[in-house]
Amino acid sequence: MLSNGKQMPMLGFGTWQMETDEAKRSVLAAIEMGYRHIDTAAAYHNEEGVGQGIRESAVPREEIFLTTKLWNTEHGYDKTLRAFEESLKRLGTEYVDLYLIHWPKPLRNESWKALERIYKEGRAKAIGVSNFHRHHLEELMADCEIAPMVDQIEFHPYLVQEPLLTFCREHQIQYEAWSPLMRGRMLSEPLIVELAKAYGKTPSQIILRWDLQMGVVTIPKSSSECRMQENMGIFDFELSALDMKRILQLDRGERSGSDPDHFNF
Fold first, then answer.
1. What is the pTM of this model?
2. Which of 112, 166, 204, 244 is the most exposed place for a label (fewest CB within 10 A)?
């Protein structure tokens, strides 16, 4: 549950690098499998497909938690409002459940004021940020009326960022993981393979279960229906406290994506 009382499913479905038609098919399949949390972004150029998949499903819109994001070229108060309207049009919906600032670019505080307006108008049921370090959050929170409800960041056993995780917990900001499997690189980690055998699960299920027990919302992405189903198989077992700690000790600050303090896009 988010700080405003909004329910956010702990397991979601990511759509990064999916083209429009693939996004439509995958989102429709994911919803039919039981996913109720769908993540996209203006920068993914597939909002139309995501929206079509949601509409063509048999599940009412209000039962789907839908996230999209503001891209880096659209920062500033007025530009953010226009960009949000364009996202709604592409998605074919009157509201989103979560709207995020995708990266901490200059003018992000002005953009945040637009997100606050969107939230007050009820067109985004929750608002937050993505790829914000602690200092980005502190700067934003010193100048905002409504604190971010989510920080979606790269998170996996090789990149935990415990100080940021602790800060978010202390301020009721939900930690959310993108690239939870490190683009597949975590699946061959010896400890993860060992635990998968011990629990009778797959490596991806071990990692995603670890995320959930860490209190981190996670949004794995796959266009394979077999993998999509596999990723859902994490609610019928629990990792021991010792194994949770062993996985945590894999942390080595290694990224698969860009550092939010050093990016040029």
1. 0.97
2. 166
119 is catalytic: no
Distance CA 91, CA 85 (A): 10
Q: Is 102 annotated as a binding residue?
A: yes
The domain tally of the chain equals: 1
- C-alpha radius of gyration, the chain, whole number: 18
**Which two three-digit tokens encode residue 155?**
């998170």
CATH number of the domain that residue 238 is part of: 3.20.20.100
Among 35, 44, 99, 175, which one carries the catalytic annotation? 44
Residue 2 forms part of a structural domain: no
pLDDT in tens, the chain (265 residues): 999 999 999 999 999 999 999 999 999 999 999 999 999 999 999 999 999 999 999 999 999 999 999 999 999 999 999 999 999 999 999 999 999 999 999 999 999 999 999 999 999 999 999 999 999 999 999 999 999 999 999 999 999 999 999 999 999 999 999 999 999 999 999 999 999 999 999 999 999 999 999 999 999 988 899 999 999 999 999 999 999 999 999 999 999 989 999 989 9
